[in-house]
Structure formats: structure tokens, C-alpha cells
Design a protein that fits this description.
13 strands; 18 helices; alpha/beta; 2 domains; 401 residues; elongated; six-stranded parallel β-sheet; Rossmann fold; formyl-coa transferase, domain 3
Length: 401
């Protein structure tokens, strides 16, 4: 059965995380993703270890997380012959994905206007810290600073007076920009199918971070008060937070009044369900400080596993606070095949976390492990461009590839 994007060629000139994450998703869906890397060193994240995957080429776990289902081609774009090679590849591509500093590729005659003249059907996607235009277009953008300056850290961490702002434990600003880029690319490909024309897509990390603050944005726009840090609590739902138990913690996520009544029944706190201060969600939000200590006192009386069993029997959403080792090795991980392995060119199994999407007719591909640096240079130049062995040898001798 063909993959959804089997007919699409992606020229991935991105590095680190946001762009590579988008490229990996497109590769999972069957696109032929060719990752362009600098000869001799490649993507910065190849060297962001430990931990390392041992083999002929030692490679970091970080790089492995975002680069499956790609082929690696090394090209030095600082030289004219390398720039010409990229132009040749772009003529054959459906999508070009890049996250260089704004203006860098244009200086090499590889910018969107220049390449769209060569290939009018090209979808050219640029990911940057602050977008391609505006007063901050030339500013660098890294995930942690985006989390801080674009609002996420203002609502992440313990309440004021009990600790400072915190970043999320993964580079979520990068990841979400990559997700926005992926959906934008798919939309642009569909637009091209109707119009025959490609286009330039501008995906800023900062704007993406602002966009997905979701209800917290609207809480300010409608309520006029900037949301603050609440630990694990929720601004619009109560009780919806972690609670200490006798032997650990659990996450209780009560989403409506019916679930609250069921929760009170499970905890043998029926008097709370009938308390006029707590009958509706709006009232529970207003009286949060009176409700939560009573629930916390009760939950400390038994172990997490005991409470989870009782809560789930009563239809109350709740879960343990698992670490990543538990998440990736428990019975549910095995049942859902959350971890798979792909053999690399050294016949070493490389673990990978599954794409969460399941298609009924066009399955996600797990065909290529993250590539060794330049592993597919000759192969791609022959397939995409029809270059001869002699021409490839000449490019290599000149340091172009």
C-alpha cells in the first residue's frame, strides 16, 4: 500500500529541532526526505551527547530523535558549486524546508524568490525565531528564550512566592513550530494541486509559541487579567491538578460537574458534592482554596494505586505521574508499540518512538534509521539528478560534497 506522501520530494536544509521535526513527520508519511548537511560536521545535534549510539559513527540520542526516514547528503553551500548543486536539487523538489538566519540563503541565490523562479511549483518553508519580516527578523531564536519571551514560562512553574518560572522539559517551542510547519506544507501542497503554483511559508517560533497558548490567551483577551503560574492546577477547571497520596502523587482531571460528583463519591467526600460552594465548575474556581485542602487531606490517606482503582471505577479521569522509563517500558507501551527499532547501515538496531498517527489504508513508514553523515550523497545525486560517477567524484575531490 503506498504511503500518503510517497510522490513528494523534500529538500530538508534545516538543522537542530523545529525543521528536522517537520521533515521527520513528512518522512513518516512516505515523502522522500533528503537532509542537506555540512560536510565533515553535519547537523549540530549529531554532537549533542551523551548519550550516544555507538557504531562506525558515534551519534547523539538528540539527533536520533528527529531524523528518521531521511537520507543524508553533504553539500558545502558556502562555495558556488555547492550552491549550484542545491539549485539543481531544488528544481526536482516539491518542498524546501530551511531554518537559516533570515537572508542567509538569499545571499547565496537560494532564497524563496530565486528558487521559485527556477521551480514555480516549489513549496519553500522557512522557520526562524521571529519571522522573515519585522523589527526582530534578524534576532536569533532558541527554544528556551522563546518559551520565556513568548509567554509560556509565565504560566509554567509553581505559584509566585513558592518558586520561579520554569521551562517545559522538552523543547516544545521548537516542536510546535515544526508541527505548524508540517500542516502548512501539507496545505500548500494541496493549494498547488489546485493552482499549480508553489509559495513561500513563513513560520516563526515566537508567533507559533504565542498561537498555541490557547485558552490562556483568551483568558487574558476576555478577562483582562494576565494568567500566572499555578503549578499543576488549571485556570478554568477545578479540581484539575496533582495531589499527594500516601506513597506518591496522582493527577486528578475533573472536567465537569458530573465527574466532580463521581469524584466525591469515590473519595467518600459526598458532603463536598452537596456543598453550595462547589456545586458548579464556576463556583469551584471561585472557591478553589476552600476545596483543594479538603481533597488533599483525604488523598494522603491511601496509596496512589488504591485511589486510581477507585477513581477509574467511578469514571473519574485520573492517572499516575510516570517517569519516561515507565512510559516507554510498561505493558501499555508494548501493547501500542510505542517503541520500535530500525536497523541502521551498521546493522545496529536504533530505537525510535512511534509516530502516534494510525492510518487505516496508508500506514506510517519506519524504513530508514537516522542516517550517517553523507550516507546517501551518491545515491541521491544519481537518483534525483542523474549525475555520473565521474561527476560525483569530481565534486568530492573539490570539497563540494
Amino acid at each position: 500500500m503506498p504511503a500518503p506522501l510517497e510522490n513528494i520530494r523534500i529538500l530538508d536544509m534545516s538543522r537542530v529541532l523545529a525543521g528536522p521535526w517537520a521533515g521527520q513527520l513528512l518522512g513518516d508519511y512516505g515523502a522522500d526526505v533528503v537532509k542537506i548537511e555540512r560536510p565533515g560536521c553535519g547537523d549540530d545535534t549529531r554532537h549533542w551527547g551523551p548519550p550516544w549510539l555507538a557504531g562506525a559513527e558515534e551519534v547523539s540520542a538528540y539527533f536520533l530523535s528527529a531524523n528518521r526516514n531521511k537520507r543524508s547528503v553533504t553539500v558545502d553551500i558556502a562555495v558556488e558549486a555547492g550552491q549550484a548543486l542545491i539549485r539543481d536539487l531544488a528544481k526536482q523538489a516539491d518542498v524546501l524546508l530551511e531554518n537559516y538566519t533570515v537572508g542567509t540563503l538569499t545571499r547565496f541565490d537560494l532564497g524563496p524568490d530565486q528558487l521559485l523562479k527556477l521551480n514555480p511549483g516549489l513549496v519553500y518553508c522557512s522557520i526562524s525565531g521571529f519571522g522573515q519580516t519585522g523589527s526582530r527578523a534578524n534576532d536569533p531564536g532558541y527554544d528556551a528564550m522563546i518559551q520565556a519571551s513568548a509567554g509560556l514560562m509565565s504560566v509554567t512553574g509553581p505559584p509566585p512566592g513558592t518558586g520561579g518560572p520554569q521551562k517545559v522539559g522538552v523543547a516544545i517551542s521548537d516542536i510546535m513550530a515544526g508541527m505548524y510547519a508540517t500542516t502548512a506544507i501539507l496545505a500548500a501542497l494541496n493549494a498547488r494541486a489546485m493552482s499549480g503554483r508553489g509559495q513561500h511559508i513563513d513560520v516563526p517560533l515566537y508567533d507559533s509559541q504565542v498561537a498555541w497558548l490557547a485558552n490562556q490567551n483568551m483568558n487574558f483577551l476576555i478577562g483582562g487579567i494576565a494568567p500566572g503560574r499555578m503549578g499543576t492546577a488549571h485556570p478554568n477547571l477545578v479540581p484539575y491538578q496533582t495531589f499527594e497520596t500516601r506513597d506518591g502523587d496522582l493527577m486528578l482531571t475533573v472536567g465537569n460537574d458530573r465527574q466532580f460528583a463521581s469524584c466525591c463519591n469515590a473519595l467518600d467526600l459526598q458532603e463536598l458534592a452537596n456543598d453550595p460552594r462547589f456545586i458548579t465548575m464556576s463556583l469551584r474556581i471561585l472557591n478553589r482554596e476552600a476545596l483543594i485542602p479538603q481533597m488533599q487531606s483525604r488523598l494522603r490517606e491511601r496509596d496512589t494505586s488504591d485511589w486510581l482503582r477507585v477513581l477509574l471505577l467511578n469514571g473519574v479521569p485520573a492517572g499516575p505521574v510516570n517517569d519516561i522509563a515507565e512510559v516507554l517500558t510498561n505493558e501499555y507501551a508494548v501493547e501500542r508499540r510505542l517503541v520500535r527499532s530500525i536497523l541502521n547501515s551498521d546493522d545496529i538496531p536504533v530505537p525510535t518512538v512511534s509516530n502516534p498517527v494510525e492510518f487505516s489504508d496508508t500506514p506510517v513508514r519506519y524504513e530508514r534509521s537516522p542516517p550517517a553523515l553523507g550516507e546517501h550523497t551518491d545515491e541521491v545525486l544519481q537518483e534525483w539528478l542523474g549525475y555520473s560517477d565521474a561527476k560525483i567524484r569530481s565534486l568530492r575531490q573539490d570539497g563540494v560534497i
